[in-house]
Structure formats: C-alpha cells, structure tokens
Amino acid sequence: PVVTASWKQPYVGNSDVLESVLEGYMTKPGGVERYARYASITQSSGTGKSRMVDELAKKVFCISMNLGSKNAYPPPDVAVQAWFQSLKVHRIDEWDRRVQVFIYVLFQTALKHAQTINSDKTKNPSQIASEFRSKMSEGMVYGRHGTYRQKFYDEVCTNANKVVFYSAQYGLHDKTQCSQSPIVNIQDETGDVSNVKDAAKALTDYLKSALPPKTVDKHSKPLVIVCFDEAQLLTDSSFFREVTPFPVVRRVLRIFRVLPIFALFLSTVAQLEQFPPPPPFDSSARVVRTVLRPFEPIVWTPLDVFAQRFTKTKAGKAWTLAEVASTHHIVHLGRPLFPAMYDAAGDDERLKNNVLRLAGNKLLYDHNPTPASMSKQQALACIAVRIPINFSAVQLSQPRNEEDVAAVERTLVANHMRLLLYAGAGFSPIITASASEPFLAEAAYLAMVQLRWSDGRAKEPADRAGLEPFTVFSHYLRESLLDLGPRGEIATALLLLYARDCATTFPLLNTELPPGAGS
C-alpha cells in the first residue's frame, strides 16, 4: 500500500528537463549522424526514472512497456515480458522479423486507441497523450496493471503472434533494404501490404494532424515515446544464449529514425554499458567506425526536491538541532524514493521504520539491511555514502569482466545506490559520486555497527576481519581506480570515520560498554 500510495503522490521534480533533452537530441545532432533516435536513462535505484517518464506521458504520447521484476513497482507488463522471452525458442535469424512485427502491431494498436480517445476530433496531441496515460495507469496496484493496460498488451501480443504465424504459413513476407536496415513487408489477411515504417508514420501523422495548424511546421519535439522500463531483459546474454534482443530492437528503431519517435531504455541493474555499448564493442559496423553515433545516456537526477527549508515559524521559532538531526528531516534529503514512501506512510511508525530498512536493503543489495556479515563490495558501498570517495575517470578499453578495474565503480551504481553524474556515449567514460544523503548514511552506519557490537557484546576481531575501512580500501586500491586525492585526503577521512565508530560503537575492553550504552 505504501509503494502504491507513494507513486500516486503529486509529482515533485521537473519532467520538462527530460522533454528539453529529447528535443535537443532530435534537433541538434551536432554534425554527427545518429544511428537511431533512442537513448538510455540509467541511474541508480530510487531516483525517479519511471516517474519522470510517466509525468512526461501527460504531454507526449508514451507507449511504456515494463520488463522488470514482479516484485518491483510499477509492475511488469507480463504479456510483453513473455513475448520477448519467447524469442529464445526461435532461431536468431528469425528475431528481426518477429521484433518488426511486434513493433508494427504495437503502433497499429496505439493508433486505434488514440483514434478512440479522440473520436470527437477536438483534442490536441497532449490531451490525447494525457488521456491515454490515464487509461494505461488506472487500476495499477502492486504486482499487476489495470484491465485497460492488460487488454492493450494482450491485444498487441496476440495480434503479433497471428501476423507472424500468417506470414510464415503463407510466405507473405519479403525482406527488402531500407537505408541499409532490412525491413519486412507484411501482408495481412485482407491482402494489404505494409511494414513497421508505415505503421509508425500512420501514428505520427495522426498525432500531427491534431496539432494546431500554425504549429505543425514549428513542432520539433517527439510526438511518440516508446519506453522500455527495466530494460535489462533485452541485454541478458545469459538468458538469450550470449545473443540479446537489444541490437534487433535498435535496428527496428533505425528504420523509422526520421520520424518524430524517440525510444527510451530505462535501467538500473543492467550492465550499464549495454545501452548502448561503447563504439569499439558495438554490433553495428557503422557505429564501430563512428560513422554513426548513439546518443549520450541521460543521467539527470532530481535531488532534495522534498527537502524542507530552514525557515523561522510565524512565532519566530528557529529550527533546533534535534529537528535538523531527526529522521523526518534527513529522510527528505537526497533521492525522491525515500521521502515519497515516508510521507505515504502517514502516522504509521512501523511503516516509517520500514523505509529505513528499505534503504539498507537497497544500499547493500541484500534482503537483510543489517547482515551478520558482508562482502567487501557491500562494505565499500557503506563507506562511500558516509565519506566522499572518488574514482579516476577511464575510457573503457576492453569488454566488462570480473577483472576489469572499472567494474567496481559501475557495480556501485548498478547495485549500491551510487549516482552517475556524467556518462559519455557508451558509458565511456563515466563520472560517479555518492551524494550527501544522510538517510543512506544512517542505513550504512546501522549495517556496519552490527559488525562491531551485537546483543550487548563486542564481536571478536575475526568476525569483522577484512571489513575495517582501511582494510577495505587497501583491497580496492589494488582492484579498482579509487582516487586517494592529491594529498591523500581520503586517508584522513577514513581515520576520522574509524575513530568515530570506535568511540560510539566499540568498547575499549570486552567488559566495557560503548559510550552512552548505559545511560
């Protein structure tokens, strides 16, 4: 209930930033031809990626498909998820035809629904988009979407399978060349022949016809957004036998790249460089030769949008130190996930306490927010949200693997709440940071204190061996690109952190309580 309630709270942020970025991508290619109109929105968990696109869908016609876990929110579109998973039982050389047919039917179905919404022909594209988004969102609860959205994607997947079967049964498909990307011509049961570009153009032409006549030539924003939320399924090489659907989807997007359609791939836990990969590792020869370049990833993140400002009350009362250090205040700093859930909990203290547990879960990438033991990666994640640590920027010179020293930094973003500040094309290079988020720091402290003190007893040194701050950093100095600072400032910060934890959570003797424990 809290998750659903937090999603339905009034949006706090600026979706106009995303709209401006997409308009810039469409109108200012920078003298470089782009492979297709798509980009990734990749950022760590809880930063409002899905909600930002959902807010933009009130103004731009957005066809959003969620391919994520059933334990996440928004919930997955089960029919679409199953459709893409079904690709693995077909020959790889059939994937292009099947994905083109799917997108073809997707646009046809979206056009039919847009025409129904605008049956009186009085609505402009933004009004059509807003009503379509409202219908696709109604009835959504944790674990499943509402009836309208379920029927929409059931219709898409059912018709896509029919078209694929019909064309295969009667041989009514023909591959031709369209701007160096193969395109499948599809003959339906009525004998009409069309393709995915025709379907895409029909949808955008319809929305364009709803624009005020004087603005048609000046309109430079996308009319349609195709969003793959939690898109890591499309790059899961282990699931798809080392070959993934993402390059196939991208080739389809290239077919209608001149139309006002933009595709977004939202991802948190995927291998970051897969949306898109660096040019040297791309599956397209034209991208490898840098003849065509992908768009840079979108990493913009709203922070402190729920923060309460330090202002005097009408009675002239100033904030007290206790109020500044209160959970209520610190939870409203940083990324929007935690304050949204905290506020949605209302007066239920149990649910509010669960928000802190959730912060620990997400920080450690573990079901237990205070585990009895933790890995060095988890320990580094805890340290990173308590003191500022940086990594040296590096261009990706080889595909990601376990020995890749840059993988440590990317894993902190994907699994442990570190933020992307900048990412070049193909995520090469990246600049990351752990923002000042006191609520996450509190979760990290509670996790680390369990390594020192439990049930009124000091833990043995062997129980925390290898997880002290200096030991963790010593390990990662050899295994990653950790930056100590020009004068070794990080060593001083580690020393202060270690001294603080010893003074507040670790007894000097086995028989001595930590300071404050007996008061």
Automatic annotation (TrEMBL):
| Name of the protein described by the UniProt record | Uncharacterized protein
- Which species is this UniProt entry from? Lentinus tigrinus ALCF2SS1-6
